[in-house]
Write a structure and sequence with these properties.
alpha/beta; ABC transporter transmembrane region fold; single chain; 644 residues; 9% strand
Length: 644
């Protein structure tokens, strides 16, 4: 296969949307602005976030009503407090009126109880809606990623994708669950409190709110800083997830242990962790001085109100009563938390906008390969059923440079139904690429790939792939039982069908010897099994699918000679009666093929049977002779010369 090399450990993978970020000094404003310009810009972001709540309109309406009622009730106690002071505790006659006071206290307690019950109900509704929206968003993103073409995943670290699904979606959870109720509740509370303050005394109201515009401006500046830090934090989390996925998988652990690189991996993770800690601290501390200043200012207002009220009373310019002062400061005190809540929500929205942008950035990716609106099903079995044809096909991998030679160049071939066709040639010649184009994992750059007489671009990809079974060199098994791995091909398969497929793949007796038989856990990627056992389970899985076309991509090249002979016998059984396409490294496995295609530098340079190609004495004969020579082992080692 001729493709772009993968990244080395620790490198940042480019996937079209993953951009390299420089960490710049906060003092370098120009550099910071340049970095911010790299952040994803999503049109109509707020509208798209709002659309996520559309399926929950009825619940949101109930929530809004509860919020409005609760917020309106929250300003009633201060007004009752005024009456309690002026009419109950200190009436004009001078003697407390206990009956009036009792009624007012009872009303206050009733308001508090109703508000508490409404708050519980409101919290349940908002938590339900928020978590449903978050869950739907996560599934939507996962579904969209399933539709992406193979090249997207070859260019993107698995850990980066996992971070989008887990860290980014999880990072907006608080906004999704609390934003609506917080904005509505705090807004109504602030407005109601402001009206109540005006009704109580307009002069004191001016004193209480005169500096609010300055606070709003400061809050906006803090929000911009927090949004920038949030974006960096999520990128760092992506890097940490990628490192974890790379190094703590079975393959990664084996690699690091084999090269004694554990300490290097620890240092790499620790370095990114230090960066994450720094960013988390910066994110939590950003705005703390702002909120501290706001808290001090708002908390100091009652003292200022007392001073102003005293001056007004002293000058005789107002008839403020003690009850009015107490009620006013009570309302003003109740104004502090809603105002802080609104400011925090505004900051959270600005912070979460970076996370939402990253999520929608992935959702806006367009799959490079998709079905046409009128795509058809693969035709039912007929004279063309299972025929594979390449008609002057040319192909370059999407990330190949403009001056790179084509991976496949003007390839034309025909594989008849039921034929056993083999592709051989040096490494990087383009053999595996042929197997990728047949199920349309990649799109031909030019020419046509035909399946059962129809251009694959005119077929539904799901229907196309359902007619093709693939056994690759790198067998992938899930961390599940053998039975569950087999049923991945056919979920409704009976136990008898599993046994039949396993027998055909020469693996049943081995499975039957395990203590838990088909309920044996295979371990991550099947590491509890030998290479030959994994490969035969993969063959059994394909046999359970029972496709008319079988692709074998160097399915035995990584096995020892004993395992190879057992697996090869299973492959011979699997290929019987099917159109079989084998990409072969060991030529001894395809000597009985109906047709052999010799691929070199992206072109088919020879084709024919094993005997015909040997008789020509050219490329294939040379490859075969080299393999035969390299497989010969001297029967006797030369004697060691005696020491002088």
């Amino acid at each position: 296969m001729h493709g772009a090399p993968g990244p080395g450990p620790g490198s940042r993978q480019q996937a079209g949307v993953e951009r390299p970020r420089k960490r710049v000094s906060g003092a370098d404003a120009a550099a910071q602005r340049a970095e911010n310009a790299l952040a994803p810009r999503i049109p109509h972001l707020l509208r798209r976030i709002s659309a996520l709540f559309a399926p929950h309109r009825s619940t949101l309406v109930v929530t809004v009503v509860l919020v409005l009622v609760s917020a309106a009730l929250s300003v009633v106690p201060p007004l009752l407090t005024q009456r309690a002071f002026d009419d109950g505790l200190f009436p004009a006659g001078g003697t407390p009126n206990l009956s009036v006071l009792g009624v007012l206290v009872a009303l206050m307690l009733g308001v508090f109880l109703v508000n508490a019950l409404l708050g519980v109900w409101q919290t349940w509704l908002t938590a339900t809606v928020g978590n449903k929206v978050m869950g739907a968003l996560r599934v939507r993103l996962f579904t969209h990623l399933q539709a992406m073409e193979l090249s997207f995943f070859t260019k993107t670290k698995t850990g980066v994708i996992q971070s989008r699904l887990q860290n980014d979606v999880g990072g907006v959870a608080t906004v999704l669950t609390n934003t609506i109720s917080s904005i509505l509740g705090n807004t109504v509370t602030v407005i109601a409190a402001f009206v109540a303050m005006l009704l109580l005394n307009w002069q004191l109201t001016i004193v209480a709110v005169v500096l609010m515009p300055i606070l709003v401006f400061a809050q906006r500046r803090v929000g911009q800083v927090r949004a920038r830090i949030a974006g960096k934090t999520q990128e760092s989390l992506s890097d940490m997830t990628a490192i974890t996925q790379e190094t703590l998988s079975v393959s990664g652990i084996l690699l690091s242990k084999s090269f004694t690189r554990q300490q290097n991996e620890i240092e790499r993770y620790a370095e990114e962790n230090r960066n994450q800690v720094r960013l988390q601290v910066s994110q939590q501390m950003s705005g703390q001085w702002f909120f501290a200043t706001v808290s001090v200012f708002l908390s100091a207002i009652p003292a200022i109100v007392y001073l102003v009220a005293g001056a007004l009373v002293f000058n005789g310019t107002t008839d403020i009563t003690p009850g009015t002062i107490v009620a006013f400061t009570t309302v003003q005190a109740r104004l502090i938390f809603p105002l802080l809540g609104l400011m925090r929500v505004a900051l959270d929205l600005q912070t979460s906008s970076a996370l939402f942008a990253r999520i929608f950035e992935y959702l806006d990716l367009k799959p490079a390969i998709s079905d046409k609106p009128d795509a058809a099903l693969v035709p039912s079995a007929g004279s063309d059923g299972g025929r594979v044809e390449f008609d002057h096909v040319r192909f370059n991998y999407p990330d190949a440079g403009g001056d790179a030679r084509p991976t496949l160049d003007d390839v034309s071939l025909m594989i008849e139904p039921g034929q056993f066709a083999a592709f051989v040639g040096p490494s990087g010649a383009g053999k595996t690429t042929v197997s990728y184009l047949i199920p349309r994992f990649y799109e031909a750059s030019a020419g046509r790939v035909m399946f059962s007489g129809v251009d694959v671009r005119d077929l539904q990809q799901e229907s196309l792939v359902s007619h093709i079974g693939i056994v690759s060199q790198e067998t992938y098994l899930f961390h599940a039982t053998i039975a569950e791995n087999l049923r991945y091909a056919k979920p409704e398969a009976t136990d008898a069908e599993l046994v039949a497929a396993a027998r055909a793949a020469n693996i049943h007796d081995t499975i039957d010897s395990f203590p838990e038989k088909y309920d044996t856990m295979v371990g991550e990627r099947g590491y509890r099994l030998s290479g030959g056992e994994k490969q035969r389970i993969a063959i059994a899985r394909v046999l359970l699918k029972d496709p008319p076309v079988l692709i074998l991509d160097e399915a035995t090249s990584a096995l020892d000679s004993l395992s190879e002979s057992v697996v090869q016998a299973a492959l011979d059984t699997a290929s019987h009666g099917r159109t079989t396409i084998a990409i072969a490294h060991r030529l001894s496995t395809i000597v009985g093929a109906d047709v052999i295609f010799v691929v070199d530098a992206g072109r088919i340079v020879e084709r024919g049977t094993h005997a015909e190609l040997l008789a020509r004495g050219t490329v294939y004969a040379s490859l075969y002779a080299r393999q035969i020579t390299s497989s010969l082992v001297p029967s006797e080692a030369p004697e060691r010369l005696p020491a002088p």
